Amino acid sequence: MEPAGRHRWRSCPRRRAFSVDDPATIAEVAAGIERANGHLSRVEQIKKFKVVAKEWLPGSDELTPTMKIKRKSIAAKYAAQIEELYAG
Q1: What are 63's strand-pairing partners?
Q2: Are the beta carbons of 80 and 73 closer than 8 angstroms?
Q3: Residue 11's domain spans which residues?
Q4: Residues 1 and 39 in one domain
């Protein structure tokens, strides 16, 4: 989910709690990815994904204060989940 969309969702009065294993959560993320993939060439498209439990906030291990992705930190922290995506 894009940060702007996430903030709209967070301010929604009917916001529901979610679980990374909840089929509804996974379906919502998959629908967003499918919409985004419609604007990308085949090599740019997301083929597999994993929803992680921790929210990535600016200034965290995953994002800089200006919302840039910290690739090395993510690769180290989520190595097992990344390996699962490529293994199967």
Answers
A1: 58, 69
A2: no
A3: 1-51
A4: yes
pLDDT tens-digit map of 28-86 = 999 999 999 999 999 999 999 999 988 999 999 999 999 999 999 999 999 999 999 99
End-to-end CA distance of the chain: 24
SS3 call for 16: coil
Specify whether 47 is located in the same domain as 88. Answer: no
Specify whether the CB–CB gap between 1 and 32 falls below 8 A.
yes
Residue with tokens 């097992």: 80
Instruction: State how far the Cα of 12 lies from the Cα of 16, in Å rounded to an integer.
Output: 9
Instruction: Round to whole Å and give the CA distance between 74 and 25.
Output: 22
**Can you give the pLDDT at residue 85?**
92
Rounded to two decimals, the pTM is 0.66
Structure tokens at 24: 């509804």
